[in-house]
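Rather than argue in generalities, we reproduce a single protein record, letters for residues, whole numbers for local backbone shapes, just as it appears below:
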Amino acid sequence: MTGSLFAASQRTVAPFRYDIVGSFLRSDALKEALKRFAQGRITQRELRQVEDAEIAQLVAKQKALGLRAVTDGEYRRSWWHLDFLWNLDGVRKVAAEQGSIAFKKRQTKAEPIEIVSKVGFSGHPFIEDFKAVQTFAGDSPAKFTILSPSMLHLITAVRNQQYEPLERYRDNDTLLADIAATYKKAVTAFYEAGCRYLQFDDTSWGEFCWEEKRAGYIARGFDMDRLERDYVSIINETRSERPVDMTVAMHICHGNFRSTWFSSGGYEPVAEILFGNTKVDGFFLGYDSDRAGDFSPLRFMKDQQVVLGLVSSRTGQLEDKQSIIERIREATDYLPVNQLCLSPQCGFASTEEGNLLTEEEQWTKIAFVKEIAESIWK
């Protein structure tokens, strides 16, 4: 054991000892407003007013529960990832019946994207969304989540078996460079707007941990070692000019749509490349089931904080407190206890539909995470 649980201490910078991934179940008032907007019964401005009111209440609830950093719950999004991509230069939503992703027993909506011109960043509505949640947060830091840069490449150029690159992107390195430059501008824009806690959400690494998915990509001609190193490189380039007072974390997930999952496998296949080389301040790692494997891949971590997602956001049933504490103790075989934190394995609503639990159960889960963390990190 590399760290005694009795020598643990709190943190004053993000990621915090008890933290959250980002999304929350949509409130009834918000769901009703979204329905009325889709029917043309209210305007975009009126919808925005409802969103503002509901986010303000959500932030107040998070602060009342004692969260060190708060989010807008991703209330203004329909997806955890696509809404960000739709508003980048050169990326377009494709009207299609195909293109959905199969989760365990469930299918998402079909709203694929494609690259139609040079990828870039010339402004984004998420910047104003961040400013709004920071206003509601007051003296608490507002955490903001966006899609990881590697995911734009994965969705358009790897998952899509019909991908036909533009003339500019026949050289894949050019596409990777443009994505990195795009995200570098995005990170700068968020910083200038006041953001000091930014999170990249990324399911590519969950796929790369899955033996079946890896085999499929290899069969299609992908060099997985090179692809993984390319993804680490563009993430590092994205934050190469990040100011020292901005925390950038990465959340790695195996899928979370409607309380289901998409991929399965421990982190060992990617651990050395990912954990050993990615220059982020913290990793949020889903560890709520056996599908995530054991803690041994943590041995490749450098100085990043590791937020263990040991509490499930997929179900309202509470885990056994002592079992969670024991799992944290197991993780200290590989990292000091003060390099660890605790959170749910993912958000509660990666899409607007949300997971299959109640709002009361959601808040009970958050309080449970805080209770356990405070019992360890004095």
Notes: The two ends are 19 Å apart (CA to CA). The mean pLDDT is 90.
